[in-house]
Amino acid sequence: MKTSICYFTGTGNSLYAARLLAEHVGDAELIPMARMVKTNQSSPSGDSVGFVFPVYCWGLPLLVRDCVEKLSVNPNTYYFGMVTYGGSPGKTLCQLDAILQKKGAEISAGFGLQMPGNYTPLYGAVAPAKQDTMFAKANQQIQSFSRIIQSKQKAPIHKSNIFVNLLFSDLLYNKFIHKMPASDVNFWADEKCNSCGTCVRVCPVDNVLMKDGKPSWQHNCQQCMACLQWCPQEAIQYGKKTGQRKRYHQASVVVEDIEAQKQ
User: Fold this and answer.
1) 123 confidence band (pLDDT: 50, 70, 90)
2) pLDDT tens by residue, 191-238
3) Domains observed in the chain
4) How far apart are CA 109 and CA 58, in angstroms?
5) Radius of gyration in angstroms for the set of CA atoms belonging to the chain, rounded to a whole number
6) What angle, 0 to 180 degrees and rounded to 10, lies between the N-to-C axes of helices 92-102 and 62-69?
7) Contact of 4 with 29, CB cutoff 8 Å
8) Which ranges in the chain belong to alpha helices (H)?
9) pLDDT of 40-71, one tens digit each?
């Protein structure tokens, strides 16, 4: 039984989860959604097709939504989703299911993994010991999820409570998601920037260019924080407070992994 795992990642959590899931499921292919969008790939093959990605603003990242909306689906395929999040999942997997249902398919199982958050504009990274605890729990959960996927079982879609879903996934997500591409106006590079170009390399949608030796954002932002978190000089800032906050990216993932998802 072949499984295609379509993934999107900014700072590595979802790639880490997708890799571990593929290892446990067996006979699995990892397919980056950034590449799928870039090359107009619309039909991943496999008896089972999964989507692994982070929660943004209590909902689907724009890139993930665009990717799934363009998919050709097979109603006989076993589809599943697995989201990573720092706070709560909201109705993200329900949003994914709704898109597939419009195409005549559905999510048979939807899983959630709480992992270290990366949204430095609001908070700093959690302590390393806490990160280790979170990954240890996630590792156990992924192993359990893999058994459900291998046997193509149905499982409830992981979501938040009705209050969070109504206030955040329904109201705030719908209000702010369309403003996300232009939200990159808040990024800037301080005096530590040495024009290394890492930010250009890691942006999954090629939204960062170098102009006169400094990064320039082109208003197609996904808010994945890859440019900020992977900057080796910690020179990229967002707003006024990120300079004082601890940054985060998944320890087993490297810059080349992030860059490769769009190639």
Assistant:
1) very high
2) 999 999 999 999 999 999 999 999 999 999 999 999 999 999 999 999
3) 3-173 (3.40.50.360), 180-260 (3.30.70.20)
4) 19
5) 18
6) 20
7) yes
8) 13-25, 33-39, 62-69, 92-102, 128-150, 162-164, 173-176, 198-202, 226-230, 255-260
9) 988 898 899 999 999 999 899 999 999 999 99
pTM of the prediction? 0.96
Phi, psi of 104 (to 5 degrees): 95, 15
Chain-centre distance for alpha carbon 184: 17
Q: Beta strand 28-32 with 78-85: parallel, antiparallel or unpaired? A: unpaired
C-alpha distances (whole Å) from 119 to each of 60, 65, 71, 199, 231 are: 16, 20, 29, 16, 15
**Structure letter (DSSP) for residue 87:** S
Spatial separation of the C-alpha atoms in residues 40 and 124, rounded to whole Å: 36
Report residue 203: phi and psi, to 5°. -65, 120
Helix (H, G, I), strand (E, B) or coil at 237: strand
CA distance 245 to 222: 21
Tell me the CA end-to-end span of the chain in Å, nearest whole number.
27
